[in-house]
Design brief:
It is a single chain. With 205 residues, the protein is an alpha/beta fold. The chain has 8 helices and 8 strands; from the N terminus they run E-H-E-H-E-H-E-E-H-H-E-H-E-E-H-H. Strands 3-2-6-1-7-8 form a 6-stranded mixed beta sheet, with helices on both faces. The chain is 41% helix and 14% strand. The chain has one domain: Protein-Tyrosine Phosphatase, Chain A. The protein starts with 5 loop residues before the first strand and ends in a 16-residue tail after the last helix. A hairpin with a 2-residue loop joins strand 4 and strand 5. The radius of gyration is 18 Å and the shape is globular.
């Protein structure tokens, strides 16, 4: 079995008991919540208050990191044409500092990042956070619903396979293909700001 420094999971609508079992099977003892909005209307057991209680009963500590590692930045400078700009977010000092703290904590604890999306390639926890953790030398594993753990390198191979726009037969290698593949995927799935109502639109009465 591959050794991982840190894990990642998307809660989706997984039953609470199954979710906790997946964490236990991976040996996780700390959950880093990277949701900008730690609330779930459709799976209320993943809203922060209920989640913290369940984790505590399972002996798993909890930290909410959505303010610095979330996918919905507050600053307008971190959006491009209304879409969250992962490249700009990755360069932000607060993101880099939070990433360093997370990497340091991973030496002491078995940490799992958590967001909502089931598929890693649909989520900023993969395309933004785990990408840069992996680039710093950490081995990241994605806990999938069936209990298997996919290495980040394997996830990147799936990203390349999905990136139909990359048709450069003369690219020097995988690293040359990865950056634009990440950029296109992020552009497709990143958080989008709501468009403002058109001027003169009727207001609710």
């Amino acid at each position: 079995m591959l050794a991982f420094d840190l894990f990642s999971i998307g809660h989706s609508n997984i039953p609470a008991e199954r979710f906790l079992a997946l964490l236990r099977e991976a040996g996780v003892n700390a959950l880093a919540d990277v949701r900008s909005v730690p609330f779930s209307r459709w799976s209320p057991w993943f809203s922060v208050k209920a989640l913290v209680q369940q984790l505590a009963q399972a002996g798993i500590s909890y930290a909410l990191l959505g303010d610095t590692l979330g996918g919905r930045p507050r600053s307008e400078s971190l959006y491009r044409d209304g879409v969250a700009d992962y490249e700009a977010m990755a360069a932000a000092p607060e993101f880099r500092a939070a990433l360093s703290r997370l990497a340091a904590a991973a030496v002491r604890s078995r940490i799992c990042l958590m967001c909502a999306e089931r598929e890693p390639l649909d989520c900023h926890r993969c395309l933004l956070v785990a990408r840069h953790l992996a680039e710093s030398g950490l081995a990241v594993g994605y806990i999938l619903v069936d209990g298997t753990i996919e290495a980040h390198a394997a996830t990147e191979q799936r990203l390349l396979a999905l990136d139909d726009e990359d048709r450069d037969l003369f690219a020097a290698g995988q690293q040359d293909r990865l950056a634009p593949a990440y950029r296109r995927r992020a552009r497709a799935v990143a958080f989008r700001q709501k468009a403002p109502a058109p001027c003169g639109a009727a207001k609710d009465r």
